[in-house]
Design goal:
The protein is of the alpha/beta class. The protein folds into 4 domains: 87 residues, Gyrase A, domain 2; 168 residues, HUPs (Rossmann fold); 80 residues, no CATH class; 176 residues, Isoleucyl-tRNA Synthetase, Domain 1, CATH 1.10.730. It is built from 21 helices and 15 strands. The strands form 5 sheets. Strands 1-2-4-3 form a 4-stranded antiparallel β-sheet. It has a 4-stranded parallel β-sheet with strand order 6-5-12-13, sandwiched between helices. The longest helix is centred in the middle third of the chain and has 25 residues. The protein is flat and about 85 Å long. The structure holds arginine. The site of arginine has 9 residues, from α12.
């Protein structure tokens, strides 16, 4: 990765120039945003000149005098107030191209410090509708898991499904009084949600129903065999169907340790927290309060109310003895640390749960957890009208419906531009484009902003979309099809045209872009990079004729096509998007 090499060389140049670097100072090198001055840029001389009270340009010159980069750079310049600009040599780019072609990791080096990372994502609730939040979580979490694994971390994915909770009072009551077995067989998730909604509505209209539901819930919690069997069946049916959905989306989990898995651990956990003084009993409930160790504005157990800080405790046991979502999450952290030796735990969950996680992380730390815990939050998906995304009937949209509709629309489009493909091929292409489009629409967004869901936009062949990227990939493949397998890529390469150089440079930067995703858990950085690759490739394709060129030039151009193909395919796979050879 050029950025890392340049960083190392800069560091060495500082030392060679006898400049003592302040503790912890690492010269920063970035991919140049304006390529007129070079390919990479560093402001290290400017930053350091302030600290050392020296002239930045003079300091930059001192570094350049010592810098040993002739093996990769053809030019280094000092520009503006003291920027160092690096222009890579064609030889270095050619060398990278051959790595991209040969290496299984397409030239992306592993991290220097591999960690054990648990990623908690998707986590829908049984017998409750899966909503858009679960869609975002599923795609972002899956992509982060893929990237983290690709760059060498040990990743454990865990689907913390909501398989325990008060909804089961209603579900069990509904199961006994109005469940339609035939419908349950056909689509268990839908039937359970239907029953849940009907009973939920009934409890609002009739107190007596609410009481009956509560009775069923208490029986379940006390281990009544009939209710336990119903609960188990609900969980089994739902997981079975969910696995099919995940299978169709190519999303995999190493574990499905739902909330119920931790039931036995909750009472001892609360007892332990009481004993250690981390939690206390207040008005009959057990809760964690502020310990005054951080400033009020950073304290998750305090809330500001009219210029005053008031207690905002995290309740871990209710007055009726019941445990809560936070209690389960604390037990889950214990398990992940003890059993899986997690260095880090990532929670890909919507922004509304921010306070929950701040409290849980703080409470876990007080219990001695040293693992790094991160809430990877995201905003909402809005409908075309800018309001919460709903279906025509006003329901929140589920994952299944969205994917099915995307595939259907992609199928219709494939039918329209009939290119002599078989029905089976069209089905397969529609599946890839449909689910790829929904995933890409999600992953190309900054996760924290709300985005508008638009079928037309996400399925369009123009713009920053999956079809546009897939089409660029298909173009690279069609060149090789035209050659009918007779290509042999030889090592004699020569970059002559600016469009070739621009493409080779873009492809070489796959490494930096893949690594940067995990800096702040943003798959959109990778998506946008791939979009630039596709654009640069189209530019190259317009400017440079591949098939009608000859000799070294032709070989170089074919190599660029093959490298583009590999970067796009691998990059898209890190977003969980499959490629197709034709479309
Ligand atoms: N089931 C929860 C929900 O739908 C998400 C769970 C997220 N993970 C966790 N460990 N709390 O809101």
């Amino acid at each position: 990765m050029f950025r890392a090499v340049l960083t190392d060389r800069l560091q060495a140049a500082f030392t060679a120039a006898g400049i003592a670097l302040p503790e912890g100072f690492v010269p920063s090198v970035v991919i140049a945003s304006d390529t007129r001055y070079g390919d990479y840029q560093s402001n290290a001389a400017m930053v350091l000149s302030k600290q050392l009270k020296q002239n930045p340009r003079a300091l930059a010159q001192q570094i350049v005098d010592q810098l040993q980069v002739t093996d990769i750079c053809e030019k280094i310049s000092i520009d503006g107030p003291g920027f160092l600009n690096f222009t890579l040599s064609p030889a270095a780019l050619i060398q990278r191209l051959s790595v991209i072609l040969k290496d299984d990791h397409v030239g992306v080096p592993p991290v220097t410090k591999a960690k054990r990372i648990v990623i908690d994502f998707s986590a829908p609730n049984i017998a409750k509708p899966m909503h858009v939040g679960h869609i975002r979580s599923t795609f972002i979490g899956d992509s982060l898991a893929r990237v983290a694994r690709f760059i060498g971390h040990t990743v454990i994915t865990d689907n913390h499904v909501g398989d325990w909770g008060t909804q089961f009072g209603m579900i069990i009551y509904g199961w006994k009084t109005q469940l339609d077995q035939a419908k349950l067989k056909l689509d268990p998730i839908l039937e359970l949600v239907t029953v849940y909604k009907a009973i939920n509505a009934a409890t609002k209209a009739d107190e007596a129903v609410l009481t009956l539901c509560k009775t069923e819930l208490v029986k379940l919690q006390q281990g009544d065999p009939e209710n336990l069997a119903i609960w188990k069946e609900c969980v089994r049916l739902t997981l079975e169907q969910l696995e099919k959905v995940y299978g169709a989306l190519d999303v995999k989990f190493d574990h499905y340790l739902g909330e119920s898995f931790y039931n036995e651990a909750l009472a001892p956990l609360v007892a332990d927290m009481l004993e250690k003084g981390i939690a206390k009993v207040s008005e009959g409930a057990t809760a964690v309060f502020s310990d005054g160790s951080v400033k009020p504005e950073n304290d998750p157990f305090l809330i500001s109310d009219k210029d005053e800080w008031k207690a905002a405790p995290c309740i871990i046991r209710k007055t009726d003895g019941g445990f809560l979502y936070a209690t389960t999450d604390l037990a889950t952290i214990d398990y992940r640390v003890k059993e899986w030796k997690a260095d880090e735990i990532w929670y890909v969950v919507g922004a509304p749960q921010q306070l929950h996680f701040r409290q849980v992380f703080a409470a876990a730390k007080r219990r001695g957890a040293t693992t790094e815990m991160t809430h990877i939050a995201f905003g909402s998906i809005l409908g075309p009208d800018g309001k919460m995304f709903k279906t025509r009937s006003g329901e929140t949209v589920g994952l299944l419906e969205v994917i099915d509709e995307a595939i259907e629309r992609a199928r219709a489009a494939a039918e329209e531009k009939d290119q002599g493909l078989s029905d089976a091929d069209k089905d397969e292409i529609a599946r890839i484009i449909g689910s790829g489009s929904v995933k890409y629409a999600e992953l190309s967004q900054n996760r924290l902003t709300d985005y508008k869901f638009s079928w037309d936009k996400m399925l369009s062949l123009q713009g920053n979309t999956a079809p546009y990227l897939l089409n660029a990939y298909v173009r690279t493949r069609s060149i090789f099809r035209k050659l009918e397998g007779t290509v042999e890529l030889t090592p004699d390469l020569e970059i002559t045209e600016p469009a070739e150089r621009a493409l080779a440079m873009k492809l070489a930067q796959f490494a930096e872009n893949a690594h940067d995703v995990l800096e702040d858990h943003r798959p959109n950085l990778l998506a946008n990079y791939l979009y630039e690759v596709a654009n640069t490739y189209h530019g190259f394709y317009e400017a440079c004729n591949v098939l009608r060129s000859e000799g070294t030039i032709r070989n170089t151009r074919l190599t660029l096509c093959e490298a583009t193909s590999r970067v796009l395919k691998t990059g898209l796979s890190l977003l969980g998007i499959q490629t197709t050879e034709r479309m």
